[in-house]
Each structure stands twice: as structure tokens, then as C-alpha cells.
């Protein structure tokens, strides 16, 4: 059995989709990042970066004691190796997939997260004029990355030779592109085709819906204020304090 410490966000969806695709048994443990659950001592023991998702496999590869893994990219690689699914074993096929996995982790996820913050969340807490540079910087970079994906998909059905963890990890962010680019459908038709194609998979639909009711719950004004401070007020000291409690 796998324990998945999870909250319904793009990084969380990557793992629930993979688990649904592979058919592995798993137990979801909610980590309400808006209320600070990622700083709980028990969670920090398996995710020292105080970010979800994280997993604990009680029946790990090779047997022995449970294995814990944090970082969504590493988690998908682990699950692919455990099941022998969605990651080729031949070097050419494997690294064709892994290069896109690492591309997502280093580029699409961080840039889209920042673009969404500055464009959609920032105006609620700061003067729009002060946010202009950040909006232009990150929205522009997301536009460039969308072009990278669209160009690749013009001549390829998927990011690897076949559907793989690269598609799962990219889809979870790419499907949100309309939040940062109003003309996504017009500007990137190959990307839109691929997003719709991946969305048709039953496992993708099921994995995406895990925890939807948590995400949709309306918070009180007091909870919103607490959430804002937790999500955007973290420092080295706050992480250090939480780490001390976990040790």
C-alpha cells in the first residue's frame, strides 16, 4: 500500500493520475497547504522541503523498510520503475521521456506558478502598477514555453514516443494555460489538441478529481487571511522552526 500525502493542485494531480494509470493501491492523506499542514512535524519527516505531494511506499521496490519520496518528478520516476509502466527501459526512449519530465519541473511548473500568482492572485494584495513587471515577465515566459510544447507536438502525438509520465507531469500544468493566456486555443492548436486528448483518458479524469471537494470548500475570511500568510510568508526561519519541531 502507498500512502500519498496530497492536496488537489497541479503537482498533486500528477501523482494521483499516475497512481490511477498504474492501478496501484493507495491511501490519500490530505495536506491542507492553505492551513499549514505542510509544516506538521510528521509530514516534515518525509518532505523536508515542506511541500506536497509526498509518498510512503510500504511495499517498496526490492522489499525492506518503507520508502518515502518527495518531489513530484522523483515520485513519478519511482512509480514508473516500481510498475514497469509509462517510462521506457531502453536508454533512448527513457531519456526522451525524462528530459521532458525535468523540463516541466524546472520550467513550466515554476513559471506558470509565478504567472498565476502575479496575474491572478497578486492584484488582491498589491497595487497593479507594482505588479506589472512580474506579470509581464512570467506570463511572457509561459507564452514562450507554450510555443516550445506546441512546436514539439506539431510532429509528435506525445512528449515521448508513447504516452508516458512526461505527458502526465506536463498535462497537470498545461491544462491551466487559459488562466495566463486568453488566446491559448488560437495561438497553440497542437498543444490544445494534446491537452484534450490526454484529458479523455479515464485515469486522468479520475486522478484529477481526487480531493475536488476540499479544493471547492469556501474558506471563511479568517481562514483566507491565515492561508495568505502561510502560503506567501515563508522564510528560512519558518522552515527551520518547523524542521526543529520535526526532529
Terminal CA distance reads 26 Å
Strand content: 5-15%
Main sheet makeup: 4 strands, mixed
Structural Rg: 19 Å
How would you state the average pLDDT, rounded? 88
Amount of helix:
55-70%
Strand tally? 4
Unreliably modeled segments = none
Placed side by side, the strands forming the largest sheet appear as 2-1-3-4
Helix-strand topology string: EHEHEEHHHHHHHHHH
Overview of the molecule:
It is built from 12 helices and 4 strands, in the order E-H-E-H-E-E-H-H-H-H-H-H-H-H-H-H. With 247 residues, the chain is of the alpha+beta class. Helix 1 (10-22) packs parallel to helix 3 (72-83), helix 4 packs antiparallel against helix 5 and helix 6 crosses helix 8. It starts with a strand and ends with a helix. The model has no long low-confidence stretch (mean pLDDT 88).
Record keyword descriptors for this entry.
single chain; 247 residues; alpha+beta; 4-stranded mixed β-sheet; 12 helices; 4 strands
